[in-house]
Write a structure and sequence with these properties.
581 residues; LRR_dom_sf; STK_FNIP-Repeat; 27 strands; five-stranded mixed β-sheet; mainly beta
């Protein structure tokens, strides 16, 4: 009877708690002494500002407040008691263990201070999210029902799981949310969802195909992305004036005649099936980037482009002559079907980047490429002579497609060219290269001697294709070379080859088994092997600076004990994924 009376007394007795932190004080009044330390700590943390990377530790005297004992069990029994709080760095290992269901001393408080969580697997993990959390993303396969009302108000970015397909009527999203991404299966109306006024980016998944007529978009929205199945009329949709980017799905194919695009819109992307006429009044004068869908096949006479446009991308089926004057574009990308002859003056003098699709195979007349051009990429079918082509003096990057196999010995390479890439069929002799070249890539068919080419001292990357299998002893590799890759057909020994001491990355193909003949430089950081070099690896190779070893042969079963353990930490890769173990 006495014990019961004493227990009832504890239930009724309260204390006032004075909390001291960072030189400031506040009081938590009428705290039952029967309360667990865990619950008091929650009350205190709710009153304190969250700090990224730090969590609150509550001290009672010289000891931390125990989570699993009542206040009376910890000697807090009457009057007014003082507790001190300090911020300590987050223990990431403890936070990870708690999320995985392991027992940790700090329990859910181990998450406090964490700002980003990805790969959430169950609804239980959502119950104690910290008020410092800014970014939350779910793992593939998440199937639990979601209570979005419990998300912390600090959240700024939310990516919902692909399986999420719940109604959002009257759901309260965090007021500070800036980025919201729906998963693949979500397909509910959002008319009755109040989107946070702070929302800047909104992305829907592949199954979403609901009317947006009565949706009230936030005034701060800057980017709207509609993917997959969306194919609803936009005539009655009130897009916010703040919108800068609008991306339509591959299925969208509605008239734009009555759509009010915001006057400040800068980027507009249509999907694969879009093939509607675009009148001049449809495109805002502020538009900078326009991507037309794969089936769009209107002539440029019908499409009057705004003068502000900087980037224009045509879809796969566009194949009309460039007869109208293009605005002062900086980037122009043609689709796969385009195969029209370009006349002098067709391309704007401001153009910096030009790419052609697979079917383009027209000769380029002298002067047709503007001097301002910095990046030029040809498609799969292009196979025209280049010796009479005036490559612009500003050109920095040149990419040829798979079928290109023309002589280039007399080509006048621009002195500023930094990247040169040849396609699969190229197998012509090179005599000279620009002195400033930094990256040179050959395709699968190339099998020419490299000792007859003066590789520039500036070269940092050299990639050889599948069939290249010529001795390398007389090749003068530049001292500044950082990345060297041999193709699958290379089988030559390299005992007489001097690899640059500054080489950082070296790759061998599936038939190379002579690793023991290679004098590997000490500075090597990445070594990739597609063939079985088990015997050599097991003997050990002294590479003090190696950071990653890619083994692409799944049958390796050797003993690597001969390697210095310091050289193996996080340096092996799984053969199927080539990601560090």
């Amino acid at each position: 009877m006495g014990e019961a009376s004493e227990s009832g007394k504890e239930q009724n007795e309260v204390v006032d708690v004075e909390v001291i932190t960072l030189g400031k004080r506040f009081k938590v009044s009428d705290v039952p002494i029967s309360m667990l330390g865990r619950d008091l700590r929650r009350m205190i943390c709710a009153r304190l500002p969250g700090k990224s990377g730090a969590h609150v530790v509550v001290q009672h005297g010289s000891s931390p407040l125990s989570l699993n004992q009542s206040l009376v069990q910890q000697g807090i029994v009457e009057g007014c008691v003082s507790l001190s709080c300090v911020y300590l760095p987050v223990n990431i290992a403890a936070a990870w263990r708690f999320l995985k269901g392991y027992q940790v001393d700090e329990e859910e408080f181990s998450l406090h201070g964490v700002t980003q969580l990805e790969g959430i697997q169950s609804g239980d993990q959502l119950m104690r999210l910290p008020n410092t959390l800014k970014r939350l993303a779910f793992a593939d396969g998440f199937a639990d029902n979601l209570d979005l009302d419990i998300l912390p108000s600090s959240l700024q970015s939310l990516t919902l799981p692909d399986e999420f397909d719940q109604s959002l009527d009257h759901v309260n999203l965090p007021i500070g949310l800036r980025n919201l991404t729906f998963g693949q299966l979500f397909n509910h109306r959002i008319d009755h969802l109040t989107l946070p006024s702070s929302l800047q980016n909104l992305t829907f998944g592949w199954k979403f195909n609901q009317s947006l007529d009565h949706v009230e978009f936030p005034v701060a929205l800057q980017r709207l992305c509609l993917r997959g199945d969306f194919n609803q009329s936009m005539d009655q949709v009130k897009l916010p004036g703040s919108l800068l980017s609008l991306h339509f799905s591959p299925m969208f194919n509605h008239s734009m005649d009555r759509v009010n695009l915001p006057t400040g819109l800068q980027s507009l992307t249509f999907g694969t099936r879009f093939n509607q006429s675009l009148e001049p009044e449809h495109l805002p004068s502020s538009l900078q980037n326009l991507t037309l869908g794969g089936r769009f096949d209107e002539t440029l006479d019908q499409l009057r482009l705004p003068a502000s446009l900087q980037s224009l991308t045509f879809g796969a089926e566009f194949n009309h002559p460039i007869e109208s004057k293009l605005p002062r574009l900086q980037s122009l990308n043609f689709g796969d079907a385009f195969d029209q002859h370009l006349e002098l003056g067709n391309l704007p003098s401001s153009l910096k980047s030009l790419s052609f699709g697979d079917e383009f195979n027209q000769p380029l007349d002298p002067g047709v490429l503007p001097n301002s051009l910095q990046h030029l990429a040809f498609g799969k079918e292009f196979n025209q002579p280049m010796e009479r082509v005036n490559l612009p003096s500003e050109l920095q990057s040149l990419v040829f497609g798979d079928r290109f196999n023309q002589a280039v010995s007399k080509v006048q390479w621009p002195s500023g060219l930094k990247t040169l890439t040849f396609g699969s069929r190229f197998n012509q002799q090179l005599s000279q290269l620009p002195q400033g070249l930094q990256s040179l890539t050959f395709g699968n068919m190339f099998n020419r001697r490299l000792d007859q080419i003066q590789l520039p001292d500036s070269l940092e990357t050299l990639i050889l294709g599948t069939l290249h299998n010529i001795v390398m002893e007389r090749v003068a590799l530049p001292t500044g070379l950082r990345h060297l890759s041999f193709g699958h057909g290379f089988t030559r020994k390299l005992d007489g080859v001097k690899l640059p001491q500054g080489l950082q990355s070296l790759s061998f193909g599936a038939l190379f088994v002579h690793l023991g003949t290679v004098n590997l430089p000490n500075d090597l950081q990445v070594l990739s092997l597609d063939a079985d070099c088990s015997e050599i690896l097991c003997r050990g190779i002294p590479l003090p600076n190696l950071k990653r070893l890619n083994l692409a042969f799944p049958w390796f079963t050797g003993d690597l004990s001969a390697w210095d353990a310091r050289d193996l930490s996080n340096r092996f890769a799984d053969p199927s994924t080539r990601t560090p173990l």
